Amino acid sequence: MVNYNFYAELDESKKIEYDRMLYSNYILLRSDEFIFIESDENNTDHISISWIHSIKSYIKLLGLDEKTYPQGSFSSNRLYYQALKNYHNNKFPKDKDFSLLLEGIKSFLTLRRDDSAINRSLLFGSCFKITKSLGTREPIQYRTVDVSIRHSAAALWILFSETTNRFSTMLLQSLEQFVEKVNFYLSKNFDWSSDHYKHLTLATIINLCNLVINKNIDNKYIDSLSKIRRISEQYILSKECLAQEIDGRFSWIVPPIKSSELSRYDYFLNFCSLVQVPHLLADERCQALLENMLENKIKTEYGYGIPIHSISNFSDIKTLKPDFGATASALYLLWYCLENKLGNERWHKYCEEYFDILLNFCLNTYSKHEFYTFLILENISKVLLLPRFNFSAADKKKNREYIHQIRKTINYEVIDHKGRFERSLDNIRIPNEYEHIKKIIKRWEISKYWKDQKAWQYDPSYSRLGEFMGGFFTGAVKALSS
What we know:
By secondary structure, the chain is mostly helical. The protein is 48% helix and 10% strand. The strands form 5 sheets. A two-stranded antiparallel sheet has the order 1-2. A two-stranded antiparallel ribbon has the order 3-4. Helix 1 runs parallel beside helix 15, helix 3 packs parallel to helix 5 and helix 8 (198-213) packs parallel to helix 10 (266-274).
């Protein structure tokens, strides 16, 4: 049941464009999934699934080390899980494709749980490596995981989302350790002082607390998480995280761009935080934060859109252009405020005005790849958090075939390194209204990344997985521990 049903007010042509907008970005997100083999400390192989391709060509742009996110980003995976689930009306289809997806995600998370080393924390990190113990008569292999609060919160969010009323001992143990770790963080220990993006961490903590508190779980956990949520919400809106500028505008505090290139993309970071805690838009400070981004709208022949970062962060005024992903993220937040009646009457009128403006831009530009200026799917896929009104069985059958063909083309390039990816992609038959998907995927630079990669190896012994692995027809890619 949707309270703010803007879809009902659209004419038929715009309804079609809205459905296509969600549909095309759903295909993009499913195409970015990657199935691979990982070995644990016992040399047992596991099928893992993560989202990988879209982020690889942007690591250098973000000023990050090339080895960053070797098998995908935890924070991104959490969002993708949520976006896919929302697209399917908050309930994944019960078919082989999604069964494999969910099992692969859980395997990916489980291997990154710090439960193998002697000094185990039972928390999560984005990657692991296999290490041999020293000083023992018979060396023992174990996984070492570089844990973090943000990664642990993202992993626990997915795992608790997949759990109804039966909570495993392992999951509750990790939650207990997380509560202890976060309490130290909120006491402003070393982890707090060294965290350059506190608003992101706090938003992820709050998001997890909101989820688990609404589960049928023991009151002792609810009490602890309620306290953590209250303190985290206080901190994320405090002067240590949220700065008020001389003209009254608000912005979250990030490092100088010279020390962290990621800080340049302040709107992207803002949306990554606000989308996790949209209920905080009931607070006028968060409303002012969103207003600031909306007032930086850029006019185009297709309407007004929001850039990926503040205008002052554009190094060349000629490159000034709105971004589909940033605009869609703002659109979702406006819809959330209207749907849940957050704020006062003035804010509601403001949201309605800008909602129409941004929706118009999104419907006009989702099929124009040049407006995907920041191509990371963590930026683009927030559009899938908007409500889906048209559940067509025919569409479900069609998009499964398109996705299968795109994945098969990607997998052939990953394994064979023939450099024919773009040509093979062009040969896929897809309706004209979705041809822009190919242009966007080409910008993932699949051939360049997989030609130069050092973290994977081709393993022909997995040819038996064949069709079950969704396109690994001649073998499989195995992730090297790193």
